[in-house]
Amino acid sequence: LALKDDGVVLGWGQNWYGETTTPHGLENVKAIAAGDGFSMAIKQDGTVVAWGRDMYGQTLIPDGLANVKAISAGRNHSLALQENGTIEAWGTSWRCLTAVPRGLVNAIAISAGGDHSLALTQNGQVFAWGDGQNGQLEVPEGLGDVVMVAAGGCHSLALKSDGTVKAWGNNIFGQTSVPSGLGRIKAIAAGEDHSLALAEDGTVHAWGRHDKGQIDVPPGLRGVKAISAGAFF
Q1: N or C: which end of the chain has fewer CB within 10 A?
Q2: pTM
Q3: Pick from 154, 221, 147, 127: which is nearest to 188 by CA?
Q4: Where are the beta strands (DSSP E) in 24-138?
Q5: Which residue, among 51, 45, 38, has the nearest Cα to 65 in the 3D structure?
Q6: Which long-range contacts (CB under 8 A, 24 or more apart) does 115-118 make?
Q7: Range list of H helices, 131-187
Q8: Which domains, from first to last, does the chain contain?
Q9: What DSSP designation does 228 have?
């Protein structure tokens, strides 16, 4: 997906479920998110539009959802963060994916993973819910001062204010074994089984599964200002 300056969304690639067929008349979009076979967009008026695969209701926007400032699309579920810091979740209810934890208030960031979700609150606390079979919900004790979170297939990442990265969950491919010597990190992203980190000097670091070349960062790549990880890319 791509969001143009004029608020128009373009999609390309696999279109088995209509995920790249932008709804007719969709305009004035300010943010987008791509999930597993479905797509989401926030309009300037704070409402959400979703299209594509809907096997689990992941594109059925909750009635009355408004004032949304951030969205995230997972494998079979969707998240929306409202201006007042509350979170709405919909789609599959497997492993309580749509049951936002009680006490989760003043959220400032969200991330939908394969079958789990992460949220970051204003005071730097991380909440996790959904499937925890691989330890992806086991937020490290004492973890604080977090400024960004990223949920992968079965693992979780957190970026602290000091530029260090914490990771937990499934590590079968080394996706939670954060390399040493990363330097100060300013952004993170999590794929199905790999992890990415963007350093303040504009370089990209990657670790975890590499059977599809997903951690083969192009030699000499510099000047990067944003990163995003797909399932296997």
Answers
A1: C
A2: 0.95
A3: 147
A4: 29-34, 38-43, 48-52, 68-73, 77-82, 87-91, 107-112, 116-121, 126-130
A5: 45
A6: 115/74, 115/75, 115/76, 115/77, 115/154, 116/151, 116/154, 116/156, 117/72, 117/74, 117/77, 117/79, 117/89, 117/151, 118/149, 118/150, 118/151, 118/156, 118/158
A7: none
A8: 1-74 (no CATH), 93-233 (2.130.10.30)
A9: -
Q: Which two tokens stand for residue 158?
A: 């957190």
Lookup: tokens for 212: 């599809």
SS3 state of residue 68: strand
| pLDDT tens for each residue of 53-74 | 999 999 999 999 999 999 999 9
Residue 151 tokens, joined: 């949920």
Structure tokens at 1: 């997906």
Residue 8 structure tokens: 């128009």
